[in-house]
Amino acid sequence: MMRRKVLSVWMTMALLLAAICPMTVFAEVYQAEVIVNVHVDADFAIPLSPVRLDQKFTGTFSSKTNISNKDSQEELNKKIEERLKEEREEAVEDAEEAIAKKAAEYSSTYKVYFEKSQPQLTETRNGSVVDITYKIAFEGKDDITFTAGGHTYTVTKQGGTEDAGTVTLVKAKNAKTVTVPDTVTYTDGIKYQVTAIGKNAFAASKARKIVVKTKKLTKASVKGSLKGSKVKTVQVKVGSKKVNKKYVKKYKKYFTKKNAGKKVKVK
Fold this sequence. Notes:
The chain is α/β, with parallel strands linked by helices and about 270 residues long. The chain has 2 domains: about 110 residues, no CATH class; about 120 residues, Leucine-rich repeat, LRR (right-handed beta-alpha superhelix) (Alpha-Beta Horseshoe). The chain has 4 helices and 14 strands.
């Protein structure tokens, strides 16, 4: 009898708990791992007299993340597509940075300059996993002259992965207003400081105004630079108003008829 009463009490308590705390229904969680792998295949042709050195740079650069969704597989699929786009951009960016670093390393080591081909990207996909093959070729050049921003430059000091090289602007582009930049970047990814303007650099240009943004010019490095040109004004824009004023004073001594080859207004 006592046993029945105890069971009855427990059953009553169980029913009360069930009424107060209804059974929790766990929703299904949809999950996926989004992965993008970029497989780099870069060829470097380096001219070394009397032979050519062929170097290959390979590597895999991955970007991945886990995502989940409680609503439906359809909503999860939408999230997968959005995340794949982000992961693809990140993985390709990492790969391109590594390629540029390797190009700069070879350029510095072998004292060459590279022309690069258009990269070819081949993509395969398996669910939320994407594999991309990134093929690109670099052709080494012994030529120390290159064009950037419409100007032609000659390398005077080889650049490397750590230090910028230096260049002379030897031929200005054909425009009424031209800018002499602080730095230029060659196609191999190496940055060069503009430290000089060559003789007659503006002779074939219709430039009337030059905007100078580099602080690295010297009196000797601009000697004869304006000979045969149509330039009338040199505007200094190297930094703040205070800094510009300082360099206007300095460059007025450089861009004179006696030194640069033509009388101009420096402001």
